[in-house]
Design goal:
This protein is an alpha/beta fold. The chain is built from 13 helices and 15 strands. Helix 4 packs parallel to helix 11 and helix 5 runs parallel beside helix 6. GO terms for molecular function: 2-aminoadipate transaminase activity; aromatic-amino-acid transaminase activity; pyridoxal phosphate binding.
């Protein structure tokens, strides 16, 4: 499909918040287009780059072949040195020179970085409508905060997954926004439950659904293509936005199998295989421009870069820019020029090689974690659903089998607390599932029970296979297993 044959986005300005609708162009920011032109720019407080005490930025990066694996030390044989200079004339093409990177920058993001990102988005997602765009952000945490301010006002309700990232829930809570949970199962948000909830809603309906749809945090679930299609159709039916928070999108893995021999030879190798193996994103299904995609380099390059990008229809992203002009202004110049230099050196092909290597690494780490769970956790009380994406795995425990369940007043949360404290005593920290529970209320209140009849008597703990070396990972699971055995009287 050529660009000219794509449909235009639907006008969704009615979903903007009062704050977003009232924002005007910052006059001084509007003049920035004249900076570094023949115009004598005397309007803004921009220091001369002559006074920036940085002449060159040089970093060693691995070559895209990654023969020793992505965790291997960088040596003379497998490294490339990238250099960025202060003056444009000293740089290779498509670099963001330090004189520009360290100046007050473009709120939308530097042209070179945004161009690479747009090519990347089109290659991976093939956005099916014409007037989409992307702007830089300071990572997904900032993107989510800006999204709420752009579309919601105090007292509004939004739809969230029944269990969601606790910081994201607190961001909404701090703005006085009601988070209404939609029932999940082990495979993520249930479209039929979303439809049931919205069909019964009274009064002002939610403007958006917030979903961490790939490698969901905390459950590790991944929405199938079929569920995503149904959810998108419901967004069109009930006129709300889908906000896909996707830091883990490229951490999709091979399916888990207990048969170690069967794991050999299953990895994707070619770029085409890799792209085709990715579950379709919501933005790849979006023909109306009602998906806001929050993307980040935090989980694929480094969290400390504090750099990401937002994909959506141009008209809505323009409202983000007005907000960013008077808040974050623009990403760190060091981060943007460093990331752009790396991506330009690798090119799209090299970046895909990096992502393929990440897929292999995370598949292996996930397998080590689940092999340890299989061996070291008591099956009498513990179950798990193997994750196919992300950094997390969840261990579900039957609270009713705890010997003190009745003594605890048949309160699963007291069982959770007891296990949590015992795990710390044994030297392992996993996150209790209750920390991620969405507690908002729908209108009218939800009365439907979840599909899982054991839902209210089971608890879970979130673990990660991303944060520690493999030996400590296995040791931590062993210690958690011991804590569970002690608490359930299985020692």
């Amino acid at each position: 499909m050529t660009t000219s044959s794509k449909p235009k986005a639907k006008n969704l300005n009615h979903l903007l918040s009062g704050e977003a609708k009232s924002r005007q162009l910052s006059p001084l920011k509007g003049l920035f287009k004249y900076f570094n032109t023949d115009v004598a720019y005397l309007a803004g407080g921009l220091p001369m780059s002559d006074y920036f005490p940085f002449e060159k930025l040089a970093v060693d990066i691995p070559t895209p072949s990654f023969p020793g694996g992505i965790g291997a030390p960088i040596t003379v044989e497998n490294k490339t040195t990238v250099e960025v200079y202060k003056n444009k004339a000293d740089n290779v093409p498509d670099q963001i020179e330090l004189a520009r990177a360290l100046q007050y920058g473009s709120t939308e993001g530097s042209v070179e970085f945004i161009l690479f990102v747009k090519e990347h988005v089109e290659m991976i997602h093939k956005v099916p409508y014409e007037d989409w765009d992307t702007i830089a952000s300071v990572g997904n945490t900032e993107s989510w905060d800006s999204t709420l301010r752009t579309f919601c006002s105090k007292g509004d309700s939004i739809l969230v997954e029944e269990y969601s990232f606790s910081s994201a829930l607190e961001t909404a809570n701090g703005q006085g926004i009601n988070t209404v949970p939609v029932t999940m199962d082990e495979f993520g948000l249930i479209p039929e439950k979303l439809d049931e909830l919205m069909s019964r809603w009274v009064g002002n309906k939610p403007k958006l659904l917030y979903t961490i749809c790939t490698g969901q945090n905390p459950t590790g679930s991944c929405l199938s293509a079929e569920r995503r299609k149904k959810i998108y159709e419901l967004a069109c039916k009930y006129d709300f936005l889908v906000v896909e928070d996707e830091p883990y999108y490229f951490l999709q893995m091979e399916p888990y199998t207990k048969d170690k021999a069967a794991r050999e030879g299953k990895a994707v190798h070619s770029h085409e295989e890799f792209i085709n193996a990715l579950v379709p994103s919501f933005v790849s299904l979006d023909v109306e421009g009602r998906v806001i995609r929050l993307d980040s380099v935090s989980k694929v390059l480094a969290p400390g870069l504090r750099l990401g990008f937002i994909v959506g229809q141009k008209v809505l992203l323009e409202r983000y820019v007005r907000l960013h002009e008077v808040s974050v202004q623009n990403p760190s110049g060091f981060s943007e020029t460093l990331t752009n230099a790396l991506l330009r050196k690798w090119g799209h092909s090299g970046y895909l090689e990096w992502l393929i290597a990440l897929r292999k690494e995370y598949t292996y780490k996930r397998d080590v974690a689940l092999d340890a769970v299989e061996e070291l956790l008591p099956k009498e009380v513990t179950t798990f659903q193997p994750p196919v994406a992300g950094m997390f795995f969840c261990l579900t425990l039957d609270a009713t089998k705890h010997p003190k369940y009745k003594e605890f007043g048949e309160d699963p949360l007291k069982v959770e607390e007891a296990i949590h404290e015992q795990a710390i005593k044994q030297g392992c920290l996993m996150a209790p599932g209750s920390w991620f529970k969405s507690e908002g209320q729908s209108n009218p209140p939800q009365t439907n029970l979840p599909l899982n009849p054991n839902h209210r008597t089971h608890i879970f703990f979130r673990g990660t296979y991303a944060a520690v070396p493999l030996d400590r990972l296995v040791d931590g699971i062993k210690k958690f297993g011991k804590a569970v055995r002690i608490e359930y009287g299985l020692e």
